[in-house]
Design brief:
14 helices; 18 strands; binds ligand T4K; alpha/beta; three-stranded antiparallel beta sheet; seven-stranded mixed beta sheet
Length: 407
Amino acid sequence: MKSRLEELAIFGRPPAFVEPLHVGGPNLGDRERLLERLQGMLDRRRLSNDGPLVREFESRVAELLGVDYFLATCNGTAALELLVRATGLSGEVIVPSYTFIATAHALDWLGVKPVFCDIDPATHHLDPSEVERLITPRTSAVLGVHLWGRPCDAGALEAVTRRHGLKLLFDAAHAFGCSRGGRMIGNFGLAEVFSFHATKIVNAFEGGAIATNDRQLAERLRLMRNFGFAGYDRVVERGINGKMNEASAAMALTSLESMDEFVAANRRNYEEYRLQLGTLPAFRLLSYDEGEKCNYQYVVVEVGDGLALTRDELVSLLWSENILARRYFYPGCHRAVPYRDHEVGRRLPSTEKVADRVLLLPTGTSVDPHDIAGVVAILKLAVDNPQRVAQQLQQTGPCAGAMPTVE
Ligand code: T4K
């Protein structure tokens, strides 16, 4: 563990980690079980199209979440797109700007305008009073995001959307296995979308799903996910190929079986960061509500004003040590190239402030408390020697791979 300034990689010493430490390194689960499932899949010669492994995954998760319908898809983005289409969204939909770009793209891709809304800086979630201010006669829905797996204020959003006769949907890509008020995520709004991408708590290599308690919507989604086929040669809906394949379902089931173990590792890491960062007040760690079910998937830190180094300088420093911290979801969708021309002059002060100071630190089953001590040691050296670190970073230039600042 590094304890002296001169040991830092920016001064020419070897990085703290030989192998990169990732924010989203995949959780693997039981290899033997996965291989067994894949063998079974090959023996059956059923590789896709509503196979037995997909069905098993869907029914197991429906039971876990207590939802009536759970439909697996090829990824979370396709699930969002299917939902936008199946719920007949049109005109404008209010979404947070502070989210992964797929939330906005799924709307825009289908000709629906994402109207970017500011967040509450304390929670990083949609600010319900701002949502209400942005409603126009063209608004058809609100799409909330349970960012970091911390559920957003579904009650307040339900009240606003009910008052204005709007649909309410959720992007729950981060919130698999989480609850709000004791109710599992998957049961809020008209429907909620999950991601089972390789970097998620439960992964299907690539995968997604839609949870809903609305029978009609589920039936429509089922058809649309499979080109609109209601049987061989019978197309009754416009649809796409949004199906999950059997190999993905094999991974998803295997991953699901180890979920408790993954959550326990994430929780241990979160507690360890909390303990160790407690001595560094320049960093505010976002907390999880211990009274709810949480997956502790992301370790989210805000870099305070008191530090004489910027968040981006810290990212460069960490990357030079092979600690691949991320600045999700910088710069905010409204400042991203495809959208910013429509948003000229529009400021979302809380989104911009948060997006400029958030730092995601490595966690997951491939990170342990010893690694965390190594990460925090680097942060401590930065806090204790900000001028020297900033000077040296200027000389070495931004570390390869560290993302450029907003254009
Ligand atoms: N809505 C929200 C709120 C989302 O966050 C996402 C996805 C979606 C919707 C859409 O769901 P999907 O269509 O993706 O199912 C990653 C993921 O690609 C993306 O799924 C995720 N959100 C987002 C938050 O993170 P990147 O581009 O930042 O990271 P990536 O894929 O390069 O992986 C992160 C790190 O993990 C890498 O540094 C390397 C490591 N890694 C990654 C993969 C894929 C591995 O070690 N092994 C791997 O197989 O987007």
